[in-house]
Amino acid sequence: MGHDDMRAALIYQRATSGADLTIADRLSKLVDRHREKPTES
Q1: What is the pLDDT of residue 11?
Q2: In this structure, what is the dihedral angle of CA atoms 21, 24, 28, 29, given to the nearest 10 degrees?
Q3: How many angstroms separate the CA atoms of 2 and 8, rounded?
Q4: Phi, psi (5° rounding) for residue 3?
Q5: Cα gap 10→18, rounded to integer Å
Q6: Is the pTM of this model over 0.85?
Q7: For residues 28 and 35, what is the distance between their CA atoms, to the nearest angstrom?
Q8: How far apart are the C-alpha atoms of 35 and 24, rounded to whole Å?
Q9: I need a surface site. Which of 18, 22, 23, 38 has the fewest CB within 10 A?
Q10: What is the pLDDT along the chain (41 residues), one digit of tens a residue?
Q11: How far is CA 24 from CA 21, 29, 30, 35, in A?
Q12: Nearest Cα to 4, choosing from 12, 39, 20?
């Protein structure tokens, strides 16, 4: 990532991992809600 300090790189990596988990969780909830809707004929 271009960081001179390995500690800084790890901090940003951890923040990104947390964001990835949040995004995945929200997408999963959207899919679940979509699947619960009855299909229209």
Answers
A1: 76
A2: 60
A3: 10
A4: -85, 135
A5: 12
A6: no
A7: 11
A8: 16
A9: 38
A10: 455 777 877 777 777 777 888 889 999 999 999 988 877 66
A11: 5, 9, 10, 16
A12: 12
